[in-house]
Input
Amino acid sequence: MTCQECGIYEKGICYYLKTKIDDINRANTCTYFIAIRFDGNEPFSPEEHLFFKEQELKSRKLKGPLDP
Output
């Protein structure tokens, strides 16, 4: 995995971090890595990918153990 394969990465910039990425291999440890998704033949925008990832992370937090 590299940042170039992430839907939040575009033209050398990580949309989540809002910075230029020099180490494209940091995707291996990035919580916000998301594979590029498509709407038909067009990839979703970095903003849309970030929204998808934030929703995914929120739903994970809600699935913790419940106290009886």
The helical segments are 46-61. The chain has a mean pLDDT of 88.
